[in-house]
Amino acid sequence: MIECFLTNLYSIDVMAPFCLEMQKRGYQCHMALDELFWKVSYGEHFDIQKAIQKAKSWGVKLNLRLNYDIDIAVTQWRVDWALFGLYKNLKAKISYGLGLNKIANVTYSEKLFDYYFIHGDFEKKILLENGIDKKRITKIGFPKLKYQKINFKISKTKPIITYLATWDKFKKINLVIPKLKALKDYDIYVKPHPLQSIEDIKFLNKYFNVLDKSVTIKSVVEFSDIIVGDLKTASLFDVIYYKPDMPIIAVGTSDELDLYYDLYKDFDLLVLDDESIDINKLKHKNKIKLRNYCFNEDWVLNKVSKISPTLDISEIEVLKDRLYKTYKDTYNEK
User: Fold this and answer.
1) What angle do CA 16, 18, 21 make, to 5 degrees?
2) Spatial CB neighbours of 160, under 8 Å, sequence gap ≥ 6
3) Predicted confidence (pLDDT) per residue in 61-95, tens digit
4) Which residues of 60-79 are buried (b: 16+ CB within 10 A; e: fewer)?
5) pTM for this one?
6) Domain boundaries, given as residue ranges, for the chain
7) Is pLDDT at 198 greater than 50 in this prediction?
8) Candidates 1.10.10, 3.30.70, 3.40.50, 2.40.50; CATH matching 2-141+297-332
9) Does residue 167 carry a pLDDT above 90?
10) Which one is the CATH code of 160-294: 2.60.40.1120, 1.10.10.60, 3.40.50.2000, 3.40.50.170?
11) pLDDT tens, 121-163?
């Protein structure tokens, strides 16, 4: 049996399709959340009622108690090991996206998982370079996108450019906005990241048509003529998953090209630093080879020895007291 430990509301869109795909392959798989973790955490991404509703919409079981005796517990990056470590048996990590910013620097704690569920050969290469045993790696393709639906449509009056905004320290909103404002022959839409701040959304809304966070990438690909994204956003590769010949413009700085230039060179246009977006320079490349490199599957789940840490279950009250104080300080103090 497999239990997917939810770290926030956003993770349901990764875990639920994973469960559906696992069930198709004969595994019992469900989602679970820790009520205290969610109750003391701040914001829409820790709303239990929304989580229950979202799980129902996917048709995947959601437990409000953790089963520490489950065969395999699955989570995402930056998990709180003081809580996740209460699981007794095998523990796994699943990639929520291609992970250009995260997976390249596999930290010590991230090397403690027994299994790694990844999207394809690109991530496998990174994990192998960081010393992860190939027997612990299972390529699962991209269930998150495989089960996505079109949930938004637009009646066009002009060609549409959609900007896929990022939300973390790598975001380039201030760099992208003036470049997009200059494109008068297009209607500009913005798809915010599910974790995009309210401040970011208000700022973007001054200039462009900002979509609801729930609009799927599959919808965006359906109505867009050109996609614009920050150099380090994995969402650009989500677009390639659906439509390898979609024109993609990546915006960023010269310094950001170095790490993954072999991936970026297959985009249709790179716009760096103070350069403007010149639509006439689009190369209109077919990125099918890039798609096949980043997203492929074999679903081989090898039997492996346990290396992940397990905490003494008797310490749970102490740990939850610490957890409460941590999240109260992190999210509730202004």
Assistant:
1) 110
2) 154, 186, 187, 188, 189, 223, 224, 225, 226
3) 999 999 999 999 999 866 778 788 889 999 999 98
4) bbbeeebebebebbbbbbeb
5) 0.88
6) 2-141+297-332, 160-294
7) yes
8) 3.40.50
9) no
10) 3.40.50.2000
11) 999 998 998 899 999 999 999 999 999 999 999 998 999 999 9
- Cβ(260)–Cβ(242) below 8 Å: no
Q: Which DSSP symbol is given to 9?
A: G
**Mean pLDDT in residue range 205-214:** 93
Contact 124, 313 (CB under 8 A): no
What the block records as the tokens of 43 is 């914001």
pLDDT score, position 298: 92
C-alpha separations of 177 from 24, 174, 182, 216, 232 in Å: 43, 6, 9, 22, 17
Residue 244 CA to residue 240 CA, distance in Å, equals: 4
What 3-state DSSP class applies to 179? helix
* Sheet strand arrangement including 187-191: 209-210, 187-191, 160-164, 226-230, 248-252, 269-272
Cα–Cα dist 168/213, whole Å: 16
* Total count of residues recorded for the chain: 334
Q: Please give the DSSP secondary-structure letter assigned to residue 252.
A: E
pLDDT for 166: 85
Longest Cα–Cα distance of the chain, Å, equals 65
Which of 135, 1, 26, 82 lies closest to 326 in space, CA to CA?
82
What is the separation of C-alpha 80 from the centre of its chain, rounded to a whole number of angstroms? 18
Rounded (10°) angle between helices 12-24 and 48-58: 30
